[in-house]
Amino acid sequence: MLNPDISRPAYRRCETDELEWEQDPTIRDFNRKLLYLDAETGADTLLRYFPPGARYAGHGGGRHRHYHLTVRQRAFALYGDFPHCEFKDPLDLDGNNVVFRRGYFMDRPPRSIHGTQPEPLSQAGAVILQWNTGGGVGLDDPKAEVETVSVPFEGDLQSMGNDFPEGRVFDTSSLAWQPHSTVPGWKRKVLASPEQHEEAVSLLFVPPGWKADDTPARGAAVGGRSWLFTLSGDLPLWVYDTAEAVPGECMGLREGTYLEWSPPAVVGFEAGPGSEIGCTLLCVGHELIA
To answer: What single string gives the DSSP state of each residue in 205-216?
Structure first.
């Protein structure tokens, strides 16, 4: 967890392949690597492992659906396959079965109905990077009693109303790369805009051989916490205590590197070695260089 004293530098890096998997206390039979947790709100960022053929223990693996009252859920699939079902509203009894595969992005606002069907089951298991704005989304989380609401498949479903926004789940490979807004040669895919979806989420591609020029470039300090996950490649990235501070600390990003920071800390680049093989990043709350 970040240092709560925002008057001091606040950034943290970890190599996720060096972390041990642990039993997920919020969803039985699944494992996790916890990357961030806000003890007060329950907001978290984690890698979650779903084993092949796994079923949610909380409801016997049968048909099940629910929504969360206040928490927004997001996820990016890194490996494997994980079937899940998205529902438009309580009257939608069949739902839309989606198999999360590498590169799939999910964005579920509060009250978005989702769940599972008995079939299909995961064939290879899955590793999914997930982040939530609060706790109580796991069926075995004690906070689920007040945050998560089960939606039946029968009864007076119409009386539940129609205030149920649909979640977005899509394959990011279907999006075309666009030029980065400020850095020549970089590419980006905007997965969620802050204007429409509360928090910016994007994929950034840095081409092989890219180097910063002689003028150091730094991002602006943005409100709240920013973080990134390295999907592939390598990239030297500097973290500074403030936008004016010198020197910075060089972070050598590689596949699986997780880095988070909060104001007044910023990230940026110095002249010198660049990316040898290129780099693809999942960025939340920023685009590195404004």
So the answer is: EE-TT----SS-
DSSP state of 172: G
**Close Cβ partners of 185 (under 8 Å, ≥ 6 residues apart):** 206, 207, 210
Per-residue confidence (pLDDT) for residue 7, from 0 to 100: 37
Quick one: which of 43, 53, 205, 170 has its CA closest to 118? 53
Which class in CATH covers the domain with range 175-284? Answer: mainly beta
Task: Please name the residue that has the structure tokens 């498949």.
Answer: 153
Instruction: Determine the Cα angle at 84 with ends 65 and 258, to 5°.
Output: 115
* H or E stretch covering 141: none
Strand partners, 191: none
**Cα–Cα distance for residue pair 267/245, rounded to 1 Å:** 11
CA distance 276 to 234: 7
Fold match flag (20-172 vs 175-284): yes
Q: Is 256 left (phi over 0), alpha (psi -120 to 50) or beta?
A: left
How far is residue 280's CA from residue 182's CA, in Å, rounded to a whole number?
Answer: 17
Is residue 225 a contact partner of residue 262, using CB atoms and an 8 Å limit?
Answer: yes
Contact call for residues 187 and 205 (beta carbons, < 8 A): yes
> Is the bond into 165 cis (omega within 30 degrees of 0)?
no
Domain ranges of the chain: 20-172, 175-284
CATH class of domain segment(s) 20-172: mainly beta
Instruction: Scan for tokens 């996790």, then name that residue.
Output: 32
Coil, strand, or helix at residue 145?
Answer: helix
The answer to whether residue 49 scores a pLDDT higher than 60 is yes
**CB–CB of 100/126 below 8 Å?**
yes
pLDDT digits (tens, 9 = 90+) for 105-119: 999 999 999 998 888
Whole-model pTM: value is 0.92
β-strand partners of 104: 171
Phi then psi for 157, rounded to 5 degrees? Answer: -70, -30
